[in-house]
Amino acid sequence: MQEIHNAALAYYHNLSDELKQKASEKFKEMDSNDNGTISIKEFRRSLGSSEIKRCFKLLDKTGDGKLDFNEFITLYYLVESGRGVFCDGHGCKASPFLNGLYFTCVECFHNNEAATFDLCTSCYRDGKYVHNHASFLDNYVFLRSKAACESTTPTEDDHHEVTYDQFILETENDI
Ligand SMILES: [Zn+2]
Ligand SMILES: [Zn+2]
């Protein structure tokens, strides 16, 4: 998580003033009582997930039960950069943030479904998931094989990017 937080801060510092403004606006949007921090209540109201406590704890570096702007930036980075991947494993402890290696359903990816079906290593290994496709590849192998097959340059549509709305939608679906 520290690595991601550092990446998030680097990302934020390189944003244009306009995008920095946008990040501040998102923060203010979640901070409904305007006290400069996001409480777990406000966080839940914005994201509404069963995984919310774990997610909040991961983001709350100081452990004071509140997210300041610095901590919020990590969430912003994960969402904006599309690095906020969700494990679809049943009752997964790694969810909602999957970093590094994970497995993705090849068919869902190729069919351009609304969302990809992704699993962390332990859910995939232990078969802790229900899905109607059986062919999974880890994200690194997958990206390499995809790049090798394609002669054309990837379009925007090839990226699975999580927008704020999708992020909220996906977490709401967990309830
Ligand atoms: Zn699938
Ligand atoms: Zn998992």
Automatic annotation (TrEMBL):
GO MF entry, a single one? zinc ion binding
**Which SUPFAM superfamilies does UniProt cross-reference here?**
EF-hand, RING/U-box
> Zinc as a keyword?
yes
Q: What is this protein called?
A: Putative EF-hand domain pair protein
- Positions of the EF-hand domain: 47-82
Checking InterPro entries in the record gives: EF-hand-dom_pair, EF_hand_dom, Znf_ZZ_sf
Q: Which residues form a coiled coil?
A: none
Keywords (alphabetical) are: Metal-binding, Zinc, Zinc-finger
Which SMART domains does this UniProt record tie to the protein? Answer: EFh
